Amino acid sequence: MASVQDTNAKQSIYDFTEARINGTEESLDKYKGKVLLIVNTASKCGFTPQFAGLEQLYKDYQDKDFEILGFPSNQFLHQDPGSNAEINEFCQMNYGVSFPMFAKIKVRGKEKNPLYDYLIENSNGKAIKWNFTKFLIGRDGEIIERFEPKDKPEDIAPKLAEILD
After folding, report:
1. pLDDT at 125
2. Concatenated DSSP letters for 97-161?
3. Which of 36, 39, 45, 103 is labelled catalytic?
4. What's the whole-number average pLDDT of the chain?
5. Which of 50, 92, 96, 106 is the most buried (most CB within 10 A)?
């Protein structure tokens, strides 16, 4: 479970520790110096096919210090009701997901994960509307841009190429 911390005291995303989908804790400090795309995901959503595009971005750019961090959430019409193990199996079997997946979290409301509190407060301040909202984070840990669910991974590719090349 993600640690409940005072979001105001956080200086960057690197100050957060999150549970991986297998239950192990991981400090986001591990990703310092990399470009990140943080995405809230769901396995039974109209946007679920974006997993294929996300995996392609990951394959295309992972050798340039790029990581995608997936955070499943079941808050939008219960579109990710499975356990962490079931979600992980679904992602690997159906989309070959090889990028890091984290434990299921809440991305809105009173029990919102502190990382998402931070991401929202430090982007446009608007609540997460749906699954597959994406946050592009620079090598310095700063949010470069927020992409809404309708923004497909392939639409983000030119921005990534610009940042990573």
Report:
1. 86
2. --S-BB-----SSTT--HHHHHHHHTTT-PPP-STT-EEEE-TTS-EEEEE-TTS-HHHHHHHHH
3. 45
4. 92
5. 50
CA–CA distances in Å: residue 90 to residues 45, 49, 81, 150, 160 = 13, 12, 12, 22, 27
Query: Edge to edge, what strands does the sheet with 134-137 contain?
Result: 66-72, 35-41, 134-137, 143-147
Per residue in 36-85, pLDDT (tens digit) is 999 999 999 999 999 999 999 999 999 999 999 999 999 999 899 999 99
Paired sense of beta strands 66-72 and 134-137, if any = unpaired
Do 131 and 47 touch, CB atoms closer than 8 A?
Answer: yes
User: What are the chain's domains?
Assistant: 15-164 (3.40.30.10)
Query: What token pair was written down for 17?
Result: 């520790």
Choose among 4, 45, 46, 66: nearest CA to 55.
Answer: 66
Structure tokens that stand for 68 in this block = 């995608």
- Taking residues 8-37, report their average pLDDT: 91
